């Protein structure tokens, strides 16, 4: 990676770190990829067969795709005929869309998908397959009518894709704020210390019945099924000091 490429990448990372929404991250991606000719980005968790169009759309994490094409793509179920999706599901290596042409040239469905994409100036693309921390398959695509990706820059684009996707995924699925009362916070803290309801009641000088009642309230607010999960979810929300 050249000094200039490294500087551009570090500038991009700094911008993404300051972004407060996936939309701002998508803007940063398009800006850094524009010198190569790219003008669009789409990234998300790859849906599984049988998912509805609405469910497929909910898996999208970054979206700067032509609106009319997105509507056609998802409503007509093109995703499962898309050769780029098929490659993402079977490989972890980044690829140019042009590299896939020999694999679908004589197959009507993927040929139709790629042909119609060209109508929306999405004839040239570069895709980075990824695996999330939860083991889900994901894809990150840059596209435009024309673009060039020198082999020396594939590593930079892969780094950009992985960093942007991870940040956007974290923002999209950020836990909703949980508001707890001071008493709930007190009891939660002692629960995290491993104290029983009786021990907490003695420490706080309240009835064991009240502690049990508030513990049930905490489970409901944190969507937890037991004491251990309550503490785990609270840690994820940074509610335990």
UniProtKB/TrEMBL annotation:
<dbReference type="InterPro" id="IPR016032">
    <property type="entry name" value="Sig_transdc_resp-reg_C-effctor"/>
</dbReference>
<dbReference type="GO" id="GO:0003677">
    <property type="term" value="F:DNA binding"/>
</dbReference>
<feature type="domain" description="HTH luxR-type">
    <location>
        <begin position="173"/>
        <end position="238"/>
    </location>
</feature>
<keyword id="KW-0804">Transcription</keyword>
<dbReference type="Pfam" id="PF03472">
    <property type="entry name" value="Autoind_bind"/>
</dbReference>
<protein>
    <submittedName>
        <fullName>Transcriptional regulatory protein, LuxR family</fullName>
    </submittedName>
</protein>
<dbReference type="InterPro" id="IPR036388">
    <property type="entry name" value="WH-like_DNA-bd_sf"/>
</dbReference>
<dbReference type="InterPro" id="IPR000792">
    <property type="entry name" value="Tscrpt_reg_LuxR_C"/>
</dbReference>
<dbReference type="InterPro" id="IPR036693">
    <property type="entry name" value="TF_LuxR_autoind-bd_dom_sf"/>
</dbReference>
<dbReference type="InterPro" id="IPR005143">
    <property type="entry name" value="TF_LuxR_autoind-bd_dom"/>
</dbReference>
<dbReference type="Pfam" id="PF00196">
    <property type="entry name" value="GerE"/>
</dbReference>
<keyword id="KW-0805">Transcription regulation</keyword>
<dbReference type="GO" id="GO:0006355">
    <property type="term" value="P:regulation of DNA-templated transcription"/>
</dbReference>
<keyword id="KW-0238">DNA-binding</keyword>
């Amino acid at each position: 990676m050249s000094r200039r490429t490294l500087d551009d990448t570090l500038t991009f990372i700094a911008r993404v770190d300051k972004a407060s929404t996936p939309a701002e991250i998508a803007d940063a991606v398009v800006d850094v990829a524009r010198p190569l000719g790219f003008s669009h980005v789409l990234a998300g968790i790859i849906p599984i067969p049988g998912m509805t169009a609405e469910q497929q759309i909910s898996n999208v994490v970054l979206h700067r795709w032509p609106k009319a094409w997105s509507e056609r793509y998802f409503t007509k179920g093109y995703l499962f005929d898309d050769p780029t999706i098929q490659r993402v599901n079977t490989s972890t290596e980044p690829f140019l869309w042009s590299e896939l042409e020999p694999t679908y040239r004589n197959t009507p469905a993927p040929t139709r998908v790629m042909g119609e994409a060209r109508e929306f100036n999405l004839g040239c693309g570069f895709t980075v397959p990824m695996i999330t921390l939860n083991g889900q398959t994901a894809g990150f695509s840059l596209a435009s009518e024309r673009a060039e990706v020198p082999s020396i820059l594939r590593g930079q684009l892969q780094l950009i894709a992985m960093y942007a996707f991870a940040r956007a995924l974290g923002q999209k699925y950020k836990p909703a704020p949980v508001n707890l009362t001071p008493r709930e916070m007190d009891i939660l803290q002692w629960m995290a210390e491993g104290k029983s309801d009786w021990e907490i009641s003695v420490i706080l000088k309240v009835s064991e019945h009240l502690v049990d009642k508030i513990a049930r309230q905490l489970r409901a607010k944190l969507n937890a099924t037991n004491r251990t999960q309550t503490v785990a979810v609270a840690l994820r929300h940074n509610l335990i000091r």
